[in-house]
Amino acid sequence: MAYDTQQVDCLQQELSNTKSKLDDTQRSLSQISMMYKSSKDENSMLRKEIQSMKFEFQRTKLKLGENDNSYNIPPSFRISETDSMRFPIVAKAESKLCHGLQFISLKDSSHTVFTKIHQNLIRDIQSSPWDKDLIMTISVDKTLKLFSIKSNSVVQSYDLDSAGWSCCFDAVKKNIIYAGQQNNRISIFNVNNTKLTSMYSIDTSAISGLGQGIHSISSILLPNQLGNNEDEMNNDLIELKTGLLGASPKSAFWIEVPLSEDTKMTALNITSP
To answer: For residues 88 and 106, is the Cβ–Cβ distance under 8 A?
Structure first.
């Protein structure tokens, strides 16, 4: 019996082609699977790298103190310059009752040193014009303090009538310091007085407004009124006059400081109407 092999050959050829296409498809699928696995592994590595970078970024922020809510915007900031270094000083709160100064190195911003000084918010920091190692701070805890950078300790502490808001050194007299308070009073202290009490204080309520507080004071050397004679200007016997420029949220005022410490001071309103 004779068979028609032509049709069988065609079917076999078709089957062979189909198998070949199937093999090609399986190879392509295998390649795609390998590419997917490689992409997945690469994606996992990138995620780990991103997490590592995030961790390093957070650690850097911690070192710089940027994520410390106690002084995101420091209430007090000064640049201090000693004989051997120059560095920023910021007021910082370590806890509710632990407030002090944070010294930051300009060479390495991650290197900081914190020293506790007050028990409440520090409102002002001033560097002494007479001693580069002496810092004055005033706080809401009702104290004014002199801090020595050299010994890293408080060398003098003064009690105030109310929360301290501002402070300054006298522009001429090395022994005189001023404290502006929340109750509108400016207290004057003599650092040579061992009693640690103010010589006297001046009430600016009539000008600055009751309960406004004195947020800024600055001692200013008055212009020389003797003319341009250099011999007279350099005469050590001539007593130079100073004044206090101060401000509350309501107004600004000027106080001329008398040459005699026994003479009381009077504040003058200088705010434009």
So the answer is: yes
Task: Please give the Cα distance from 105 to 113 (Å, whole number).
Answer: 9
DSSP 8-state class, residue 160 = -
Spatial contact of 216 and 246, defined as CB atoms under 8 Å apart: yes
Closest CA to 120 of 58, 75, 156: 75
Residue 83: closest CA among 116, 25, 131, 120: 131
263 vs 148: CA distance, rounded Å: 31
Q: Is 273 helix (H, G, I), strand (E, B) or coil?
A: coil
How far is 245 from 266, CA to CA, in rounded Å? 12
- Whether the model pTM is above 0.85: no
Cβ–Cβ < 8 Å for 269, 258: no
State yes or no: pLDDT of 226 exceeds 60.
no
The type of residue at 215 is H
Looking at residue 3, what is its pLDDT? Answer: 56
